[in-house]
Amino acid sequence: xxxxxxxxxxxxxxxxxxxxxxxxxxxxxxxxxxxxxxxxxxxxxxxxxxxxxxxxxxxxxxxxxxxxxxxxxxxxxxxxxxxxxxxxxxxxxxxxxxxxxxxxxxxxxxxxxxxxxxxxxxxxxxxxxxxxxxxxxxxxxxxxxxxxxxxxxxxxxxxxxxxxxxxxxxxxxxxxxxxxxxxxxxxxxxxxxxxxxxxxxxxxxxxxxxxxxxxxxxxxxxxxxxxxxxxxxxxxxxxxxxxxxxxxxxxxxxxxxxxxxxxxxxxxxxxxxxxxxxxxxxxxxxxxxxxxx
Length: 293
Prior knowledge:
Oligomer: single chain
Order of helices and strands: HEEEEEEEEEEHEHHHEHEEEEE
Shape: globular
Number of helices: 6
CATH architecture of the largest domain: Sandwich
Helix content: 10-25%
Strand content: 35-45%
Largest sheet: 5 strands, antiparallel
Structural class: alpha+beta
Number of domains: 3
């Protein structure tokens, strides 16, 4: 009887969970149709949607993953290839989310999109929140944390000198340019596209600046930063300090995150990471038909 009761309880719990998840959906809020082509510029279809359903108040962030999109003329607008988009905080834009697909055919009147909505709910997994005490007390050395090690994440806070050395090592030289050209040729990328990529990389180099007073700089692998939703600097009271500007720069597999607090952080400041884990994510399918304006 006890085993039967336990099984029934688990079954009902699973059924309730599935029922709650089935309520989450996507509702169209606005559509911007830019079917234009001018030189190298090609328009796109931009959609703004609202998430509906229960349990959304527990989600810190969400993202829309389009796995298939095509218009009523059969034109494929998205096929699910490429990197997944970043999670977008639920506190922004009243929870509205914007994403885009390729432009429909000129004669198309509707588009059908299929994919998933992913929610990030760190409260579902205790290991999704990692706190590193006195994280800025030792610069230019990887953070020492049992939790980070368990998550297989390695981050290094950089000094001004460490940041300058890292920036110098990332600059494009003739050897790196030739490596880019060789990789592009290997993948069958047209030469003019490779040249545009190189010029764009050079332009981004010009945006690199020296760290300012109080700036916190973290260095690590792109794959590690992809698994981190947010990094917070904690003050003496244990609460996140106000950060006026954040940015992440990636070159190849190396990434640098910069955070500029409104006030210099205390010397013993801790860092708190919200890590995207399997348990902290929920996924819901959607099937949306959009009438074009």
